Amino acid sequence: MNRITKITVLLILSLFCAVASAQTYRQVNDISYTQKSDAYSLERLKLDVYHPEGVTDCPVIVWFHGGGLEAGNKEIPTPLKEKGLVVVGVNYRLLPRVTVKETLDDAAEAVAWVFRHIAEYGGDTRKIVVTGHSAGGYISLMLCLDKSWLAAYSVNADDMMMYAPFSGQAITHFNVRKMQGIPPLQATIDEYAPLYWVRGDCPPMVLICGDRELELYGRYDENQYLARMMKLAGHQQTYLYEIDGHGHNGMILPGFHILETHLKQMLGQPVMP
After folding, report:
1. Which terminus of the chain is less hemmed in, N or C, by CB atoms within 10 Å?
2. Are the C-beta atoms of residues 45 and 94 closer than 8 Å to each other?
3. Can you give the pLDDT at residue 12?
């Protein structure tokens, strides 16, 4: 476990790919990624791609938004801009209009789209990081640990470079439990819980949470248990961070520094303290 007492947000440009100092960036919005044909899917299942122009082989961040699986919209987080990264912000269908099974299928379809198309935007499919905050963190954990979601689209979950959920739920998501008639403080672990799928052979996993006393519904404690179980299962590249003094939403900004640090380490680039 790592406890973060001081977070320095880097304001310098991080050159993850061959990016000139005067590099220009472009954002392409509302790209449909689905083969589904119902009206809600056609309305909702879109993504945005933010990318540097005229370069190749850039790392790719797939970002799933938060909102308790019931709300929220795709976004390109500002701290990820102008860093030599290709960033994909994804929408997915929301509870209770659909089931969590359909939501996770949407997320898997979006990642499959990234594998097929991101080279067109300068991204490298060998350097894909799947991440997101809260509900988005939960989604990234499920895609990582239960390989069946991505396998349905002929993608191997282990082909990602890294998974880095921000405050993701490790037990069954509380709004999934709500649809099951279970109150938010009654913890359950079923097939829709990342903890159900603990395995020792997945890519590196970076678990980032806020202060355990300020986080939502014991979110840090869930991630601490997940980290312990992953290591017991033989996974040596599970990393757990608790950002002291920051709650569920306050942890997002310093969380990007942790994400960037791990990404640089994996790419063999210098890391500034």
Report:
1. C
2. no
3. 32
Distance (Å, whole) CA 266 – CA 161: 8
Q: Can you give the residue ranges of every domain in the chain?
A: 2-6+25-266
pLDDT digits (tens, 9 = 90+) for 80-101: 999 999 999 999 999 999 999 9
Question: What is the CATH superfamily name and number for domain 2-6+25-266?
Answer: Alpha/Beta hydrolase fold, catalytic domain (3.40.50.1820)
Spatial separation of the C-alpha atoms in residues 230 and 238, rounded to whole Å:
7
pTM, entire model: 0.93
For residue 79, say if its preceding peptide bond is cis, omega within 30 degrees of 0. no
Q: How many CB atoms lie within 10 A of CB 255?
A: 28
- In this predicted model, what pLDDT tens digit does every residue of 121-176 receive, in sequence order? 999 999 999 999 999 999 999 999 999 999 999 999 999 999 999 999 999 999 99
- For residues 226 and 137, the answer to whether their CB atoms sit within 8 Å is no
In angstroms, the Cα distances linking 42 to 3, 33, 56 are: 43, 9, 30
What is each CA distance from 140 to 37, 193, 218, 219, in whole angstroms?
25, 12, 19, 15
| Pairing outcome for strands 123-133 and 162-166 | parallel
Place of tokens 């006393």: 213
Task: Give the integer Cα–Cα distance in Å for 265 and 149.
Answer: 28
Alpha carbon separation from 117 to 55, 228, 229 (Å, rounded): 15, 36, 35
pLDDT in tens, 27-44: 999 999 999 999 999 999
Paired tokens of 267: 């790419």
